[in-house]
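tool_call predict_complex ligand=erythose-4-phosphate
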Amino acid sequence: MKFFIDTANLDEIAEAQALGVLDGVTTNPSLMAKEGITGEENIINHYKKICDIVEGDVSAEVISTDFDGMVKEGEALAALNPQIVVKLPLIADGIKACKYFSDKGIKTNVTLVFSAGQALLAAKAGATYVSPFLGRLDDISTDGLNLIAEIRQIYDNYAFDTQILAASIRHTMHVIDCAKLGSDVMTGPLKSITGLLKHPLTDIGLAKFLEDYKKGNS
Ligand code: E4P
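tool_result ok
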């Protein structure tokens, strides 16, 4: 299972990268705005900085909602670095653009996916990644994990290459449940990754080992 971090915060990206388990980064316009990154030039420079920190795929989302605009933006983003994955919304023009980029061998991440049917369309358009937003489904009393299971079944039935990128992850249990369901990737905040480290028995056990070492070596 690949671990992506869902942020535009460079310190958090660097911290996850330093842990040695980071496979990529996802961003979106809201996450960029949260870091105060506005304006085309600043956003482009920020993507470059992210690519310098991580070794894996970096999703960069287009703002256009029409095919021509998405193609123009996506080509400019993809030209920045081979790590860039063009992130496209699941609307008709997004699916058309996905097919266009996929035919050209440019990686894509189809985002804002909330149903199995949408995920099927993204796979048929040749998406590299599909991003079902499980946390946002949970927010409206709908089982986000069930969507991951449905997409897994459909993709396996037809051996689609599209990777399921479980997005809108909120906490460690989402990560574990997505891993059980066979999600190819998860993207979440730093705490959803570092939270996996935590167990009181690990801390208690380590303290005891160190205490016993000291006794034996004093
Ligand atoms: C996915 O790529 C999105 O950036 C993200 O996971 C959305 O998460 P949120 O629902 O916590 O905003």
